[in-house]
Design brief:
The complex is a heterodimer of chains A (138) and B (68).
Chain A (H helix, E strand, L loop, with lengths): L11 E5 L4 H11 L5 E2 L12 H6 L3 E5 L2 E6 L8 H6 L1 E6 L2 E6 L1 H11 L2 H20 L3
Parallel strand pairs in A: 1-4
Antiparallel strand pairs in A: 2-3, 3-4, 5-6
Chain B lengths: L2 H12 L6 H8 L5 H7 L2 H7 L3 H15 L1
Helix pairs in contact in B: 4-5
Classes of the chains: A alpha+beta (138), B mainly alpha (68).
């Protein structure tokens, strides 16, 4: 939401990941130096964010040295990685080409999730989408 | 966002077309003026102001460079 220009302050970042085995291994390896732990779980609960663990689960809410990060295999209303990728546009963020979910995709996802906190942001997202279209803003 | 677009955005926010999503959001209580400052920023600048946002992309860049 923030990358699309929403003024909502989020404490975490959400990434949708692809579930091929090599990618699960890449993901586990990339996160390892940042001490991922299962957010909200007791500190003494054994948790290893490795390829096996990722393969056995779907969505992970993690605390890391980089901050709180959620890794989602599926996004409500959209589906898995390839559907989410198709609903995204490439943006340059800090010199990295990143697929950022479009506002239309965000709106679809929030509508499908349907929780009060999702529905609460819909008027803002729809207005932002309209302003961006009319002003041709990024 | 170029100056011309910013003027248009301000006009839309201050005088939303009746029945538009902008008008509905204003009625809902959304502070639409916040759009101006966020839309002025590039995605990189938005990431920078998000909690921890910038660091993770810097690390991704470093990792991408290391893999080349």
């Amino acid at each position: 939401m923030g990358l699309q220009g929403s003024p909502q302050v989020m404490q975490d970042m959400h990434f949708c990941y692809e579930r091929s085995r090599p990618n699960l291994e890449r993901l586990a390896k990339a996160l390892k130096p940042y001490h991922p732990s299962w957010r909200g779980a007791p500190a003494d609960l054994p948790f290893h964010f490795d390829a096996e663990t990722i393969a056995r689960g779907l969505n992970f809410t993690l605390s890391t040295d980089l901050g709180d990060i959620d890794f989602l295999a599926e996004v409500s209303g959209l589906g898995g990685f390839h559907s989410v990728e198709a609903a995204s546009g490439v943006r340059n963020v800090g010199g990295v080409e990143v697929h950022v979910l479009s506002l239309a995709g965000l709106i679809k996802s929030k509508t499908a999730a349907g929780r009060p906190r999702d529905l609460h942001v819909l008027p803002e997202l729809k207005a932002l989408e309209e302003v961006k279209k009319k002003t041709r803003s990024e | 966002m170029i100056e011309e677009h910013e003027k248009l955005a301000l006009d839309l926010i201050n005088n939303p077309p009746p029945g538009s999503e902008i008008a509905k959001a204003k009625e809902f209580g959304v502070d639409l003026t916040l759009f101006i400052s966020t839309l002025r920023r590039t995605p990189t600048e938005r990431a920078r102001v998000l909690s921890q946002g910038a660091r993770i992309f810097q690390l991704a860049k470093q990792n991408a460079s290391a893999e080349k």
